[in-house]
Design goal:
Two copies of one chain form a homodimer. The first copy, chain A, is of the alpha+beta class. The first copy, chain A, folds into two domains: 77 residues, Orthogonal Bundle (Arc Repressor Mutant, subunit A), CATH 1.10.10.10; 42 residues, Dna Ligase, domain 1 (2-Layer Sandwich). In chain A, 41% of the residues lie in helices and 22% in strands. Chain A is built from five helices and five strands. In chain A, helix 2 crosses helix 3. The longest helix of chain A has 13 residues. The structure holds a DNA duplex.
DNA sequence: CTGACTGCAAACGTTTTGCACGGTA
DNA sequence: TACCGTGCAAAACGTTTGCAGTCAG
């Protein structure tokens, strides 16, 4: 993944801090603000939380990254990608993406709600295989 | 619905403020903190936001009420009830409950994730029939 | 060279806490 | 009566803003 190119695609200037944010999200998949801040501090000992917030907001506005709201947890952020659901381990807090076929559910939702649906957010919680050992 | 009885079931002392909170949630289905505060101010002109937060936390702890996290919106709160999904109108912000059969989806999730799932949070966004006129 | 980005400090909005008083059981 | 809940004020927390200096294009 060429982080700089991706940033340009979204009309964002390429700065080292932004590249690092995208890189961390690419490598770790899902991070909350604190986790991101901690990781960036290694590369940029004087980086400011304000910088992170400003950049997150800029990237969210352009839908380069997205917020994932998780019951009982802090929000995490991920690079935008094809629509997918999330599973969260209630014990170790690990988050995984899963692709599920939503047609069936979406049809049912449209039938029962009379809304025309354009987006869905599905988060499933439970215990992962490691934690259930 | 007997609000006082419900509170007792959850080991919560019955106070006028708590009864009012439960009543508003029962009548309106989903409210965020500000909406709840505004409504309660009518009945209790000197009620404090601190009181509302303390009570919400107590009721959430006992799972008498639940937080619903909605993409791009403030969280709303509802009385606990049988598992269900939510649809949100992106224009008028109306929220509705819908009962959908989750078996199919849940099976797919279990297959693809190796998590044992105990909870699901599904929020579908779109435009309601009134707003699409 | 110009406008945008960074980091700092201050401001802001939301939620929590401590305390004195009052109400529930 | 003993404990818990309420309301107020202050504190804590997370996020945003303004500004001066720096950097990307």
């Amino acid at each position: 993944m060429n982080y700089a190119e991706e940033l340009k695609k979204y009309n964002l200037k390429v700065t080292p801090q932004r590249v690092a944010i995208v890189q961390e999200l690419y490598l770790f998949g899902h991070l909350n603000i604190d986790q991101l801040y901690t990781k960036l501090l290694n590369q940029f000992p004087s980086i400011s939380l304000a910088t992170i917030y400003k950049n997150m907001n800029a990237m969210i506005e352009r839908i380069f990254i997205q917020e994932v709201k998780i019951p009982h947890e802090k929000s995490v952020y991920e690079l935008s990608k094809a629509s997918h659901a999330h599973v969260v381990c209630e014990k170790c807090k690990k988050i995984e993406d899963i692709m599920i076929s939503t047609q069936g559910v979406l049809e049912e939702v449209k039938e029962k709600s009379s809304f025309s649906i354009t987006n869905s957010a599905m988060v499933f919680s439970g215990i992962c295989s490691e934690c259930s050992k």
